[in-house]
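The freezer alarm interrupted the setup, so I double-checked each line after restarting. Inputs confirmed:
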Amino acid sequence: MSWILVTPLLVPFATAIAAFLLRHRPAGAWISVAGSAAALAASIVLLTAVLQQGVVAGQMGGWPAPFGITLVADRLSAVMVVITAITGLAVALYATAEVTERMRYLGFHALFQVLLAGVTGAFLTGDIFNLYVWFEVMLISSFGLLILGGRPAQIDGGIKYVTINLISTIFFLSATGLLYGMTGSLNMADLSQLIPRVENQGLITVVAMMFMVAFGIKAAVFPLFFWLPASYHTPAFSVSAVFAGLLTKVGVYALIRVFTLIFDHDTGYTHTVLLWVACLTMVTGVLGAAAQMDFRKILSFHIISQIGYMILGLALLTPLALAGAVFYLVHHIIVKANLFLVAGVAERLTGSTALGRIGGLYTHAPLLALLFLIPAFSLAGFPPLSGFWAKYVLVKASLDIEHWIAAAVALAVGLLTIFSMTKIWGEAFWPPHPDGVEPKLSRLTRAERWRLLTPIAALATMTVIIGLFPQPFITFAEGAAAQLLDKTAYVDAVLGAQE
Amino acid sequence: MRAPRPAAPLTPAVRSGPAPTATPTQRAEETAIATDPKSDRRNGIAGWAPVLLSATLFAWFCTFLPAVAEGEVLLWQLDWVPSLSVSLSFLVDGLSLTFLLLISGIGTLVMLYSDSYLRGDPQYARFALYLTSFMLSMLGLVAADNLIALFVFWELTTITSYLLIGFHNDEADSRRSALQALLVTGTGALAMMAGMILMGVAAGTFEISEIVAQGDVLREHPWYLAIMILILAGAFTKSAQVPFHFWLPNAMAAPTPVSAFLHSATMVKGGVYLLARLHPALSGTEVWLWTLTIAGAATAVFASLQAMRQTDMKQVLAYTTLMALGTLTLFLASGSAYAITAFVVFLVTHSFYKASLFLMAGCVDHGTGTRDLRVLGGLARAMPLTALAAAIAALSMAGLPPFIGFIAKELGYGGSIEAASSPLLVTGAALIANALMFTVAAVVALNPFWRRGGETPSKPHEADWQMLAGPLILAALGLAAGIFPHVLEHYAAAPIAQSLLGDAEKAKELHLWAGVNTPFLLSLATFALGLVLYFARGALRRALESTVGRLPDLDARWDDVIDGLKGFAAWQTRLLQTGKLRRYLVVIFATYAGVMAVTLAMKAAVVVELDFSDLILKQWMVVGLIVTGAAIVTVTRSRLAAIAALGTVGIGVALTFIVYSAPDVAITQLLIETLNVVLVSVALLRMPLLDPAGTHDHRPKDAVLALAVGGVVATLLLCVLAVPMDMRLTQFFEEASYPDAHGRNIVNVILVDFRAIDTFGEITVVVIAALSAYALLRTTGRRDRA
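Predicted 3D structure, all chains:
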């Protein structure tokens, strides 16, 4: 069983090495595309296996759990790996038109593939310390991507990014140490069995809160999100797209994993805190977006706001709410990465991302306007696009258990999301360009158009498909939620059915 | 991929005033098209395909008429998202079919009209696409039998309306109006979504046909009030009831066919449709009765007064639309047979005459270049057919016999004198509104054609057949329906009475002449009052300026709300996202310490065993070294000293490892510390010297925070140490290391075998760090040379 778990992880590493060796040739970029496609194939194999056999686990090095390191994929992990590969492929193709020769020479594609590998590893590991290692891989490769190009704004954002994220990993590491001190294990399935046996349950709760802060920083929740708006608008658009799609979602994934599998002993406390964090994150994030006048900064603050929705699903902890969180994760990654890709094309055509200085895209680039409108309206939760179902499920889940405040916040934030998304539309697309520029797509070369717009169109198509045919995706998310709430399949797959 | 475009953009609109209510916007963009030499270019497939589609749909819907008139209810069902109880189920009964026919019928005429009205517009394909999408969404809205499916179509009409109001996207006013309509109706829709979910949960089903069958369950349900308020929020915003009315007059920024179709005949009636559709489920309570009565009456009176103040034809018509929407809401407040029959007849009547008048206004605008009622006059000679359509429609609007408007008015009075809320209030409101409609009809549809007028921007000319078909047919329908009222009764009123009241027999019979009764006398009073008001309209306007004109202008308040929201958002963001890393770190550490301290205090039994008895001097010295090092780091102002002191702390940690017999870890630690001190010194010494204190000394606060974090973590650590350690892993590693993994050094075996994948990851980290550093040095180095 191991090989289907390891392949999605090894392919990006191999691709990174190949891309690095070919970094002085244009082929380096195409190696990255081919590798991403291979990773996508591998991840689909994994997802198929998970769908057919349930939770799949593999003991690395043949050492039985909990002594070695286990890789494990349930539905949540598998779908996250697939969506990582999809984002990877889309951005890799986009990057062939965006990344300069110089950036390629300095190792852009290698860094990019290692980042994908780190993200994939984080989704697949069943070991809490190993998760820390993947966080480090992600952190260092993302830092490299962030500062590649070396503009002062990038360095400034990069320093804030790396400092705050290093603090997060320190918190994470110390929490892991303390947890090990109390249980003597690092295997997450094993931990879920050992925690109830610890006498001082209050201490477990304190350690759980340490994890919450550590992952909260990664997921960019209130009041720990500072690094995200400080850095996401600075690097290449390919980089911010892959960051926007994946990085915070690893934090959200870690929160979901840890607060369903390991720390479900005192949900009255931990998940109530999460609920308030979710609401405050939704509100502060969207207000942040409403205050911005830059394409990418608005999108960055929206990420924060929407992380709140996902955390809300975790906090409510009902089958429907968790399904909503999983659905939201997948929807959000596709939509968010795509919006950053669109921002990149808009910047090329109009010369800037500052909303006051651009315009004319609706009149002169109607195709781009359409490709923006789909993810933008999906993000704002308009039917029949994916974001509507994501929002609907979470609101319904809140109302089902009569959690009025959560539902009201989710809806009000939806409105503010519309407000701030239409700001981009109303500034960059509708009005004429202030300098009279006609931002036609024909200003790009044929090759550029093809490479930049294909990934955008593909992701937009996915958004529409999820929106029009949501049932299979919701069924899948419900299955994922059931696996998260009933841990036996996960634990049995990792530790064997003996316990 | 994209259609070729003529190079010349549209001539910008000429406008006379910024405030839409007081000084209505006067646009002449249509003239610009008319005089553009390229404007004869046909719209091609985008021109005729929508007409064909809507005509086909209309014909198809007509085939349902006999069955529905017999009381049949047609149902289609298609699963969509069964696990969320969302289905694409459609239901056609009297109510739906009336709307379906109005939408597709008026749609056909509007599409035909638009093709000529916007001929040569480079964006026509886009326009036709939006308008067709709107029509299909609207059809879905009125046919959907599932609450969530209805909501989906509802929102689709909102989006298409947004795109259509903003069709003149180069103009700031259009963009503002589009956004305003989107946000106002969007707010209502989100509330409505919550209301629909609650309704579905309360009723145990999301199928409307099943929900309306259990009105009693809903009315008794503890959530009833919440459900009603939330759904009314959606309906009232969509149907522009006071105080959510202000977006509708602004929506007139859209091209005239859009105003005729969306913002008069169909979309704005979506809210009223929902009220009617859910009438059996929600009506019958005091709160429903009074809410709808007050909102409807206020809207009708307020709007008819406002209509008198306007000078732009489209603005006048917009306010009369508001009046109609208020009246329809008023009819739905009660469940009396009169009111429901009046609702049906007025719904149809209004759609006929209002769409006709809007299209007529478009013809006038197109033919003369202005819509200003102060300028227009004497057009009957140049535009005879337009004048004819206007006259017929206006007579129906005024409620004169033998037009259908007369019957509608009679029925309305019949309902109002029986009103369950307050007959006096309702009749009074109806009388004022109807009399004003009479006056407005004369002002807007007769004056421009028959009175003497001034110069118009371009020489008046008659519209072509495509633009005349709509106003003439719709106006004629108003006359035909008045002469043959039983057709309307048979095909609309009776089936709708069955949908809403459960009994087709309850529909009142429609008669042009019902004898001398109270409604007839009220009609006479209406005409008399209307005539008086017409001749005293100058005085009336002045009176209105000093009264209604002084009411708070919600449209202006809207800007305040938006500005306030932006201001608050900016304030909040400045507060949080300061841009200063120091502040971020303070917040993060304070959160960390605070969360842990609170949890420790609330949840954990703090059991700390401080037993120093086995510590000997050697260990105390190590502790002393670490503490001293840490203290020096915090107080020294010399960088070198700080780095060296930090190194001391590291060495202290290494010594601890030695004391507790882990020499290999200690060696690693020592190497790392040494390397660290060297590297950091080299790096820091090359950096420019900054005044570490600056003007403000943060160190006291930082010290408190550092002590708090340290204290909490140390307490937690001591608590954890009190928990007995499970040595399962260590035992396994000791036992398996040599026999199974063939290594004598357990730490090494852990690193390269048991947990090799960790090491693999960490090696990657080192490589990538080197790669990043190299890239950074190369890029910045290049810039320095440049």
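Quick read of the result. The two ends of chain A are 21 Å apart (CA to CA).
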